[in-house]
Amino acid sequence: MKKIAIIGGGAAGLSCAVMSARKGYSVTLLERGARLGSKLSATGNGQGNVTNLDMSASRYFSDDPLRVSDVIARFGAQDAIGFLESMGGIFLPDGRGRVYPAGRQASAVTDLFRRETEHLGVRVMLGARVTSLSRRKRFELSGDGFSEEADVVVLAAGGKAAANFGTDGTAYALAQSFGHTVAPLSPALVQLRCDRESVRGLKGIRTEAVLRVLRGGKELCRYRGDVLFTDAGVSGDAVFRASSYAEKGDKLLVDLLPDVSEARLRAAIGEARGEDCLLCLVNNGLGRMLYRKADGKEGLISLLKSYPLTVEGKLGFERAQVTRGGIPLKETDGDLMSLKRSGLYFAGEILNADGECGGYNLHWAFASAHCVAEGI
User: Fold this and answer.
1) CA pair distance 340, 328, nearest whole angstrom
2) How far is 179 from 292, CA to CA, in rounded Å?
3) What are the Cα distances from residue 78, in Å, to 91, 300, 348, 371?
């Protein structure tokens, strides 16, 4: 029986383990942490946004968009839902196409995988950090106090983002030992740092807004969602989505009242004077700050509909949800097997493919694992 060793017990590793074990292979899953699926349990603000009905390669960033398109064409949103429901549970979309477990609990999705791997007889090794990977007749894996052999190895150890979940970027060295390169790494789906004067005194204020990103006067993207002001910039759903496009020096324009026209604002403000002229329009603290900044009534309306911020950078990997960069897809074949070493496969975030916010990165984990399992 072909023996498969999967390095990494996150969404991609767990999916590949289940899919491969269902085909009758002997599967060993090696996870460096104390628990499987730690990062999976935190996804979607703890609610488990597992995929998105609006699935398209245009939602991803990669060195090989055509390969991404092929991978998700082979395993689309309905395939992901069907795979997850084959283990139990019900998964439903919200109004924006984001798919969640009906119970809105990400940790329960992890529990589905744990139950299924146990049922299928997957051998799970926790606290097993692989530090050496080589191949003679078979692959040889070793770490502190253990060694394993396998016919096939799947590297699904994640990227460099969110080191608290055990993804600190050290797994790239295992691929590099076989001659693979690593595309430059940077944090993605992360808070943006902005000029401090523009966010001074606004920490903790959250609002539903439309956020636009401009570079040289050209709009790069716009998203509607939560914008949360922090002591150093902005966070929230809309910001995470925009962070895939924003770079240092870009301009952010925030429509703080996207459902209210300028004419209606003009009427609501009327001839009101003083810092209380925006009562029941925006958060009181935000309103007072805007009033102090504005040059008259028209200036105030302009700030409400297009509040400007300048991007000074992004927070680091420790605060990011995913990693941009990684093992180039062009160094793999159509089933995501290494072109450098036969029998070595890649799945999930370790590859140079990251998606927008909204379930796209978890979908990549499932879809890439499917390609690997089929290839094996």
Assistant:
1) 12
2) 58
3) 10, 46, 19, 16
